Amino acid sequence: MSIPVVPSHARVVVIGGGVIGTSVAYHLAHMGVRDVVLLERDKLTSGTTWHSAGLMVTFGSTSETSTEMRKYTRDLYARLEAETGQATGFKPVGFIEVASDLDRLEEYRRVSAFNRLCGVDVEEIGPNEIRNLFPIAKVDDLHAGFYVKGDGRVDPVDVTMALAKGAKMQGATLLEGVTVLGVVTKNGAVVGVETTSGTIGCEVVVNCAGMWARQLGAKNGINIPLQAAEHYYLITERIDGIDKNWPVLEDPGSYGYFREEGGGLMVGMFEPVCAPWNIGSIPQEFSFGEIPPDWERMTPYLEKAMSRVPVTLEAGIKKFFCGPESFTPDLKPLVGESAEVKNYFVAAGLNSIGILTGGGIGRVIAHWIVNGEPDVDVTAMHADRLHPFQSNPEYRRTRTVESLGMVYQCHYPTKSMSTARDAKRSAIHERLAAEGAYFKDVSGWEGADWYAGRGKTPDPGPLSFGRMQWFPHWEAEHRATREGVILMDMSFMAKFRVEGRDAGRLLNQLSANEVDGEAGRITYTQWLNEKGTLEADLTVTKLDDENFFVVASDTAHRHVATRMKRVFERGHAFASDVTSGYAQINIQGPRSRELMQAVTDADLSNAAFPFRTAREVAIGFARVLCVRITYLGELGYELYVPTEQAVHVYDRLAAAGAPLGLRHAGLKALASLRMEKGYRDYGHDIDNTDSVLEAGLGFAVDLKKPDGFIGKEAVLAKKAEGPLKRRILQVFVKDPEPLLYHAEPVWRSGKPVGYVRAASYGFTLGGAVGLAMIDGGGEVVDQRFIESGDWEIDIAGKRYPAAASLKPLYDPTNEKIKA
Ligand SMILES: Cc1cc2nc3c(=O)[nH]c(=O)nc-3n(C[C@H](O)[C@H](O)[C@H](O)COP(=O)(O)OP(=O)(O)OC[C@H]3O[C@@H](n4cnc5c(N)ncnc54)[C@H](O)[C@@H]3O)c2cc1C
């Protein structure tokens, strides 16, 4: 075989010729980047793509980004043949997801309401209609089915070939038989790739190497914590009466899905406890490969799945197929520019939906490369949300056992992953455990979610979409914050010490707010990109002229670090990650001053220590950075304590707090308290597509700063457009009973105008409360718009009267926090 000749230069090199790589190349070429070279180690599709089941489903996600990508992908696969002459095998035979228990019924009703808002034509149907559409399914125990007529299946190899052909027709070069050995970098940026056919100089690399992406990325220190796992389907012999036009039938409750294949049925599976494959490394030569199936492990699941279509239990088995697919720690893909190397993009870890989102992923990455920013919310899939320890072999081995099965679990909103736990503990973990803390996974940290009480073992009880048995604990913590004083551990927050002669100037360039004013002040600010949309939402505390403290959330940790690294190249400023160096203990509530004053001699009176003051104070033997700020909407203090003194300080606080009725409050209380006050949370209710003004954060933008800031021009341009026609509002359900979680459609005067991005239960307000991005449909979203409309929120298909507000529903005048 002749060795392929590679060009000496290309603007973009795409690594990997599966559905993702070809889609990236296709979209780049269509967006005018014709100087793109795709390199495939063996043949196109030879990794995972060739053996995919090819389900093409738009239903099922409560992420707008994922749903839009699915819709886009389906439309693309439907039209590619006309463009390229290469069929994709798209057959819109329909898709039904069945609910075999009441919790799934609730889940799918909630998802349906959201998916309909996004334009997915989903219909709830009864057992008889399911039987009409898929006559050999057992339906007597089913509550309902959720039917999307236009969904169906594709041929994954044909899809990939059509994308490849379309890319070539636009001028892209696709080379098979070329392995990328590593990426060449200079000064922290991509300059080329080394291949088995020589070096190619390039500006941008996209790692679409599927399950090999992690080990390829590791050569350049790029963290891509995905892991291949065994993934199964079975194909039966011919079964009389099977019609190839029957819809795809999915029954997550029995771990199985069904579609016609060669006159028989394919029975695909997502078993609840699964098996990672090749933790060490993926063999370089594995091509069009299969994994010998583990019959013993899979038989119980197989039997359960097949019982949904009992005839499959009697039919002969033509093939029991096992192939590897990549899974990630949180079941979201790894997409975007890496934190480690500039212009090194990743698009991998597709968690078994690589075909049905492949078109969308390629479009998003291409747009990002061409325009410098993504045009969809990428906060949940940005590769930089995950941490390097999640690439550890033991982490991957333990977590992957759970992640594949999560696909078909009922997606209870309060469920936390239960594997790969106890990776990171706060310094006061044992003390919190003694208070009956129920811990959940917070980016690897054990985060106290709620407290059962001293000496009690927390029992979360069964999961549900309704009120869980820990509700009373949550409510008590919420009320204690509003009425008394609480202690909350938030040591998982990302903390950076920023030093240098230019630290203030460069932080001010990053920040839309003025962060380089008086020393000893904390400032809430956003970091924007050139388009004026949000990159981060955090606080900057000025300690002295050359010394700052930056605090961001756990998922923004690496994104924030990367932005500082890029901007600090322009001067003398250095960020040190001191997350491990400080515990963060928050004392909040109207009696917090009383408590704090009992443990320190520092004068904490309103005059001496007003809102936004940051000062080092003495507590016992410790020096503590005490910041008067709140994320809960009350008078309060955040304490940054050297880790080795955290227990000491905690003990002082606990002792002084006892006579004041100090309670411990967890992250559930954090969510409900901040939501009542309308405080934002990046990646939940605000994201990279929101202009800082639409996000309702204009108050934190200082347009008068002498040297401006990144994104200022865009903010000015947005302002010049006039009053906002798209804006975040706080929404509140008037009936105290129903609960909001996320993705519930918001209606105004009989028309959908947006959906709830994040929500909680407002115990003080007396009902569910959330934040929703509202589109005025051409009208200005202002007080008049709010008052002239009738507001409702759709929860699982039923609309409830609601209120909407521009101002925080709790303490709109900030009296409490300034008390
Ligand atoms: C049994 C099974 C059923 C599935 N069913 C569905 C389904 O119904 N619907 C759905 O949407 N998804 C499904 N999937 C998932 C889907 O197949 C994958 O998500 C998708 O194929 C991943 O595509 P990819 O391009 O990321 O990876 P791959 O297809 O693996 O492509 C990566 C490519 O990179 C190449 N490569 C690796 N290293 C290098 C290197 N160093 N240099 C050059 N090239 C390199 C490889 O040879 C490979 O071709 C299924 C998966 C399995 C296993």
Describe this structure in words.
The chain is globular and about 80 Å long. The chain is of the alpha+beta class and 819 residues long. Helix content is 25%, strand content 28%. The mean pLDDT is 97. A hairpin with a 2-residue loop joins β19 (437-442) and β20 (445-451). Flavin-adenine dinucleotide (FAD) binds next to α1, β2, β12, β16 and α9. Flavin-adenine dinucleotide binds next to α1, β2, β12, β16 and α9.
Keyword list:
819 residues, alpha+beta, eight-stranded mixed beta sheet, binds flavin-adenine dinucleotide
Topology record:
Elements lengths: L8 E7 L3 H12 L5 E5 L14 E2 L7 H21 L10 E5 L2 H16 L4 E4 L1 H7 L10 E5 L3 E2 L2 H14 L3 E4 L3 E7 L2 E7 L2 E10 L5 H6 L8 E10 L11 E4 L4 E6 L2 E6 L25 H12 L4 H4 L2 E11 L6 E4 L6 E5 L5 H18 L21 H14 L22 H6 L2 E6 L2 E7 L19 H13 L2 E4 L4 E6 L3 H8 L10 E8 L5 E11 L2 E6 L4 H12 L5 E4 L4 E7 L3 H8 L14 E6 L2 E6 L8 E7 L3 H12 L5 E2 L2 H10 L35 H9 L5 E8 L11 E4 L2 E12 L4 E9 L7 H5 L3 E5 L2 E8 L14
Parallel strand pairs: 1-2, 1-11, 2-8, 4-13, 11-18, 21-31
Antiparallel strand pairs: 3-7, 4-6, 5-6, 9-10, 10-11, 12-15, 12-16, 13-14, 14-15, 17-18, 19-20, 21-27, 22-25, 22-26, 23-24, 24-25, 27-30, 28-29, 29-30, 32-35, 32-37, 33-34, 33-36, 34-35, 36-37
Helix pairs in contact: 1-5, 1-9, 2-5, 2-9, 12-17, 13-14, 15-16
This protein binds flavin-adenine dinucleotide.
The computed structural class is: alpha+beta
- The total count of strands amounts to 37
Hetero ligands:
flavin-adenine dinucleotide
Strand content: 25-35%
- Gyration radius, rounded: 27 Å
What does the average pLDDT come to?
A: 97
